[in-house]
Amino acid sequence: MESVDIAYGDRVLRVYDVGTGVPVFWCHGTPNLGKPPRPLFRPGVRWISYDRPGYGGSTPVGDRPVGTAATDMSHIADELGVERFAVAGHSGGAPHALACAALLPGRVTAVLAVAPLAPFTAEGLDWFGGMISSAEGSLRAAAAGREEKERYEASGVEYEHEFSEADLATLRGPWSWLGEVAGSALPDGPGPLVDDDLAYVTPWGCDPAAITAPTLLLHGDRDGINPPSHSRWLASRIPGAELRITQGDGHISVLDHASDGLDWLLAR
Question: Parallel, antiparallel, or unpaired: how do β-strands 85-90 and 11-18 relate?
Answer without folding.
Answer: unpaired
